[in-house]
Design goal:
single chain, 4 helices, globular, 9 strands, Extracellular Endonuclease, Chain A
């Protein structure tokens, strides 16, 4: 009987621990991510764009899972419209092969509509690389999940949108953007919103 009671208490402890650790904060050195293991998606990613020199190429790198975290994986992106959308962009961290590889963690990947990822999102990332020639930038991405957002059969939760808040570190100037997670209907410049 005592063993049964201990087993019940230990099981309850493990369940509570798992629930408490749904959202984890992970510092990857070049970006910090708040990640929902239940949703298998990042909730917030923060990085610094500071005009790093290009010394390496991404080549044929693939996204990888992390043994200590429950993340999305290849199955979530198979035969659908969702790209493995980098939150902290690989191109910003091409100063070393190690840094580029760090951006390919599934901790840094969101289920992002392919037309958004390859279109206006990519174009805004390119603009950031121009802006960081003049001043270092702090970039914060907040991944939005509205009620009744899509959940894939594989378990991945599909974000409903993405906020990107950019701050020029010297001047304090801010630009904020919002992108619905769908095929863009307007250019990135038209996605600018008032910063909160």
């Amino acid at each position: 009987m005592r063993r049964f009671i201990l087993t019940v208490f230990f099981t309850a402890f493990l369940i509570n621990l798992a629930q408490a650790q749904d959202v984890v904060t992970v510092d990857k050195g070049i970006y910090v991510v708040e990640y929902s293991q239940e949703r298998e998606q990042p909730l917030r990613v923060t990085y610094r764009a500071n005009n790093r020199p290009k010394n390496a190429d991404r080549g044929s790198m693939n996204f990888y899972t992390e043994k200590d975290y429950h993340t999305s994986d290849n199955a979530d992106y198979y035969k659908n419209v969702w790209d493995k959308g980098h939150m902290a962009p690989a191109a910003h961290f091409s100063d070393s092969k190690e840094n580029i590889k760090t951006t390919f963690s599934y901790l840094n990947s969101a289920l992002q509509h392919n037309n958004l990822n390859r279109g206006e999102w990519r174009l805004l990332e390119a603009e950031e690389r121009k802006w960081d020639d003049e001043d270092n930038l702090t970039v914060e991405i907040i991944v939005e999940f509205k009620d009744r957002h899509e959940i894939l059969e594989t378990g991945g939760h599909v974000p409903t949108g993405f906020f990107k808040n950019i701050t020029w570190e010297t001047s304090g100037v801010q630009k904020c953007f919002y992108f619905p997670n769908s095929k863009p209907e307007r250019e990135w410049e038209e996605s600018e919103i008032a910063c909160k």
